[in-house]
Amino acid sequence: MEGSRLPLSENSATALQDRMLDALSSVIDPELGCDVVNLGLIYGLSLTANIATVTMTLTTMGCPISDVLEQMIDNALTELPEVAAVNIDLVWEPAWGVDKMSRYARIALGVH
């Protein structure tokens, strides 16, 4: 049983990542009315020297609310005591599609 447990540092990292995802779930895309996590826009999270890096995409290139989303993400993550600053790494590969959405988002948005 002892061998199946993650080392403390991995447990702590997993707990922090869960808290970061929980904070990001409060960031609602104003156009779609669903959070960025359930929309599948968040591709990765890391924290180095108190700087959170969010690897993410947008539903469309040239999204008119990208600046708003970035500010909302910054605000949500800097509420965590471990996060002093946020870098957003906006990527286009892999391309976003409805297949990235959670079941919750699909139901909420009526996507079948």
Automatic annotation (TrEMBL):
Entry's Pfam families? FeS_assembly_P
What sections of the sequence does the record tag as coiled-coil?
Answer: none
> Where is the signal peptide, in residue numbers?
none
Where on the tree of life does the source sit, at the highest rank?
Bacteria
Q: Where is the MIP18 family-like domain?
A: 19-87
Q: Where does the sequence pass through the membrane? A: none
InterPro entries recorded: Fe-S_Maturation_MIP18, FSCA_dom_sf, MIP18-like
Note the SUPFAM superfamilies from the entry: Fe-S cluster assembly (FSCA) domain-like (SSF117916)
Q: What is this protein called?
A: Metal-sulfur cluster assembly factor
Q: Which organism is it from?
A: Loigolactobacillus zhaoyuanensis
